[in-house]
Design goal:
Conserved hypothetical protein from pyrococcus furiosus pfu- 392566-001, ParB domain; alpha/beta; 6-stranded mixed β-sheet; 684 residues; 4-stranded mixed β-sheet
């Protein structure tokens, strides 16, 4: 059919192109589309028409009255979205309503069928083709995201996403065209423009192709911006050093990923060394910088000792407190105070902190011969651990007093210098002749064995003294690293937890444990020889508290795949039950602590248990990262715990023993056979 361009005729002819003023166009009541166009679609059409003109004619028919006479208006059979887009441009004063619109007049075909046909018999462009064309516009014409967005009526953010998708490896785009990848999976690959890396990860994928797994594998050699090293160094310093940060445009990447882990480590160490130099300037012999705390250092640690303030300093503390209370009286916070008063209050507070800090100090010998470790907290802040002394410097850091005259033990003679067995007279004669001669090693061993046995019996009969001896033995090893200082063969083992759970040493719970230990450490006598007297001098409550602290340091309830210890773990469960342990007070399920490290099924189970089945159903179809975030919010404040952290229900109380028939039965020891049987059971 040949088209003829003409102006509006009194008697329109079907099958011709005509130009109609925009104001003369109306929506057709026979338009098949009943759901109106969205605002975004109209915006996109308006932008397209503005930059490229009307690419496709509108299809129209004349509007007539009931008697069939034309009204002078035209009904838009196909192209209602374009009409609305031009009206939007007219509203924005970009064009006038008198602007003529190129239309195709059709009175021969059914308007409803034409409208339906336009929306049905068309094949939309595959998204991959769109992504590549956007990329070509950027590369060939130099259009930025803003320019492309303006020409197609989409936001610059959307354009950036499409440009990133267009930069995915052509091999993977082809797989996407062939339905071998979903759009979500393709977006996961687009986290970086490294085609080799994309193809490598794709080749190594197995049956599980969840987008979060692809993102994990794509960034396996990169460092999250939330990593403590990245937080400590900072994105700006890293970029200035030549580092590149890759960003995920399709999900919340929380600042992106630092591509060069080696460079990041170098920058972190350099910055930590600067801090270590300032710490060493305090007078320490050495200060080492480490990203992780070096648990295997093997050094003895000294703690600050309590120091009494001078009378003048104590008086100044009291005076400062009085001044501070007078200033803040009547105010709920410093923010409510006039700036001059608030500044004075802050100065007094700082002065009191400085004076209070003087109440504990390291021995000058320890500072001169010891050092400190400067490491990173899990949150990217600096952690300084002072008071460590190397083995070769211990004698200088902790000089022992010279023994007084007569205290030294003379070496004992060996058995070969003793008289022959049976020659008692000769022995007596020798002892008479040499009254200062020590007894033999064998006799010393025999007598000390007897004394050891006597000590065991006596200690068993005096629980209060057993408490002192046990506390002394454990304290000497945990605070002084002197296993030989006690006479009980009890060896505490403290398992570092930092190697099993990243960041655990920097949690509020770990801070409480550290505060407990340091509070006791500061009270300990400098010399382990004085430890017995210190423990004896404690009242019963403090002594038991010290023992409890020492015992607590040795608790090990780790569940490790290579360490099978069911009886130990069962005992740990019983201990938790006896203590009424509630881990929920200090631990909550977050994306980092649990939800981001388990499957979607585990997340659904957690929400089902902690909230409700209905809440679990609402998040069941979400993507893994979104599901984890939603679950974190839902579980907040519920007290839900995974099975590993739960405290078992306390076991039922043992039945009370039967009352003896008479008092004499209480005093009777068990029969030998029963005793042996009990030992046999215990050994099983």
């Amino acid at each position: 059919m040949n088209a003829v361009t003409q102006t509006v005729a009194a008697e329109p002819v079907s099958g011709v192109e005509i130009f109609v003023p925009l104001a003369k166009l109306k929506k057709s009541p026979r338009n098949a589309r009943k759901v109106p166009h969205g605002e975004a679609a109209i915006e996109a059409l308006a932008a397209s028409i503005q930059h490229k003109g009307l690419i496709q004619n509108l299809v129209i028919e004349p509007e007539t009255k009931e008697d069939g006479t034309p009204t002078g208006y035209y009904l838009v059979t196909a192209g209602e979205g374009r009409r609305l887009a031009m009206l939007l441009r007219a509203k924005r004063k970009q064009i006038k309503k008198s602007e003529v619109v190129r239309c195709w007049l059709d009175t021969a075909n059914d308007p409803s069928e034409i409208s339906l046909d336009e929306n049905v018999t068309r094949t939309p462009m595959h998204p991959a083709d769109q992504f590549e064309r956007f990329r070509e516009l950027s590369e060939s014409k130099g259009y930025g995201a803003e320019e492309i967005g303006a020409r197609f009526g989409v936001s610059a953010g959307v354009v950036k996403q499409r440009l990133r998708l267009g930069a995915v490896s052509p091999k993977l785009l082809q797989v996407y065209r062939e339905d071998g990848l979903t759009l979500d999976q393709l977006m996961a690959f687009a986290i970086t423009e490294d085609h080799d890396r994309q193809e490598q990860v794709f080749a190594n994928l197995h049956h599980n192709r969840e987008p979060w797994i692809i993102r994990r594998d794509m960034t396996a050699s990169n460092v999250s911006a939330e990593d403590r090293r990245a937080v400590f160094v900072g994105a700006e310093a890293y970029a200035e050093a030549g580092g590149n940060i890759i960003r995920d445009l399709f999900s919340e990447d929380r600042g992106g990923f630092f591509e060069d882990a080696g460079l990041l480590d170098t920058l972190a160490i350099e910055k930590l060394r600067e801090v270590a130099e300032r710490v060493q300037a305090e007078g320490w012999k050495w200060a080492e910088a480490h990203i992780d705390y070096p648990h295997a250092h093997g050094m003895r640690r000294f703690y600050p000792q309590t120091v009494a303030l001078s009378d003048e300093e104590e008086a100044r503390v009291d005076e400062a407190w009085a001044e501070y209370d007078q200033i803040v009286d009547g105010y709920d916070s410093l923010d409510e105070m006039p700036e001059d008063l608030a500044a004075k209050a802050r100065a007094l507070d700082a002065e009191m902190d400085a004076l209070s800090a003087k109440r504990s100090a390291y021995d000058p010998n320890v500072i001169a011969n010891g050092g400190a470790f400067v490491v990173l907290h899990h949150d990217g802040t600096v952690r300084v651990e002072r008071g460590f002394v190397r083995a070769e410097d211990e004698a200088l850091a902790d000089p022992q007093p010279e023994p007084e005259e007569g205290d030294a033990t003379e070496p004992q003679m060996g058995d070969d210098e003793q008289p022959e067995d049976g020659d008692e007279d000769a022995q007596d004669a020798d002892e008479d002749e040499e009254p200062g001669k020590p007894i033999s090693d064998s006799l010393t061993r025999d007598l000390s064995a007897y004394r050891t046995l006597a000590l065991r019996v006596a200690l068993a009969e005096q629980p209060d003294m057993a408490l002192i001896a046990l506390t002394h033995t454990l304290t000497a090893q945990l605070f002084y690293s002197y296993a030989e200082a006690g006479c009980l063969e009890v060896r505490p083992t403290v398992t570092p937890l930092g190697s099993h759970a990243d960041g655990i040493e920097d949690t509020p719970l770990a801070a409480r444990a550290s505060e407990q230990h340091e509070a006791w450490a500061e009270r300990m006598p400098r010399d382990v020889a004085d430890l017995w007297g210190f423990i004896v001098g404690l009242d019963e409550a403090k002594r038991i508290a010290l023992l409890a602290h020492c015992a607590a340091r040795t608790v090990n309830a780790l569940r490790l795949p290579w360490d099978r210890k069911p009886r130990s773990l069962h005992t740990a469960d019983r201990l938790a039950g006896a203590l009424a342990l509630d881990v929920a007070k200090d631990w909550t399920p977050t994306v980092d602590s649990y939800l981001g490290r388990v499957t979607k099924a585990h997340i659904v189970d957690a929400v089902t248990e902690g909230v409700s089945e209905d809440a679990a159903r609402r998040i069941a179809d979400m993507k893994k990262p979104d599901m984890a975030q939603a679950a974190e919010q839902l579980l907040s404040g519920t007290g839900w715990l995974p099975a590993v952290l739960r405290t078992p229900e306390p076991e039922g109380a043992d039945p009370a023993p039967a009352e003896p028939e008479d008092a004499d039965s209480v005093e009777q020891p068990p029969e030998v056979e029963d005793s042996e049987a009990s030992f046999a059971v215990a050994a099983e």
